[in-house]
Amino acid sequence: MTERDMMLKKIGTLKFAVTDIDLFLDTHPGDAAMLKKREEYESQLEPLITQFEAQFGPLTKCENDANTWAWVKDPWPWDTEG
């Protein structure tokens, strides 16, 4: 597994955790422990996304400021081995 793949997996894991906690907090808005956990995951996610985009380019079209088409640069997920 490449460094890029490992970073994408970590980003996906953290994004899933934040989204899952958001859904939980919709029904349990006063749960201080989960609010703290969400902030912890979010604080890990933001620098990881910044690092990924600095090394490999934007994750989504919306993240792209400089070049409108940079987000479609190779390799596509199906172009990599394994």
UniProtKB/TrEMBL annotation:
The entry's keywords: Capsid protein, Virion
Lineage, opening ranks: Bacteria, Bacillati, Bacillota, Clostridia, Eubacteriales
Name of the protein described by the UniProt record: Spore coat protein CotJB
Protein CotJB domain boundaries: 6-79
InterPro entries: CotJB_dom (IPR024207), Spore_coat_assembly_CotJB (IPR016571)
